[in-house]
């Protein structure tokens, strides 16, 4: 049996966090730690718990997920970061890739890809 992965989901939409959580709970390898609303909450969770995966939105109330991605990769380089945003244009995708995003999915069309990707990570 594979080890369970700790997953942190950072999104300002409670509905999105809830939907992703319910999808991932069906995976035998995922163990969701709290989904959080802000980057400051995400930093606190990362300091408290060892995370394997962070699902990260770009537009958040207290800053940019793109800049937070850079912080994650500098401080926790082994964490797999999946960008999940409606801001999925070429500019945002390239910026995320340059800063170390492992995956980038469009929130409006690529929900199933997150599930498939996380299932394959373990």
Structure description:
The protein has helices at 14-24, 39-48, 65-75, 90-98, 111-121, and strands at 5-10, 30-32, 53-56, 59-60, 63-64, 80-85, 103-106. Strand 4 and strand 5 form a beta hairpin. It has one domain (5-121): Rossmann fold. It starts with a strand and ends with a helix. The chain has a 5-stranded parallel sheet, sandwiched between helices. The chain is of the alpha/beta class. The protein contains 5 helices and 7 strands, in the order βαβαβββαβαβα.
Overall average residue pLDDT? 93
Q: What's the quaternary structure here?
A: single chain
How far the N terminus sits from the C terminus, by CA atoms, comes to 10 Å
What is the H level of CATH, i.e. the homologous superfamily? Response regulator
Helix and strand string, N-terminal first?
Answer: EHEHEEEHEHEH
Helix % is 40-55%
The CATH class designation is Alpha Beta
CATH architecture verdict = 3-Layer(aba) Sandwich
Helix and strand content put the structural class at: alpha/beta
Q: How many distinct helices?
A: 5
Backbone CA Rg: 13 Å
Main pleated-sheet profile: 5 strands, parallel
The CATH topology comes to: Rossmann fold
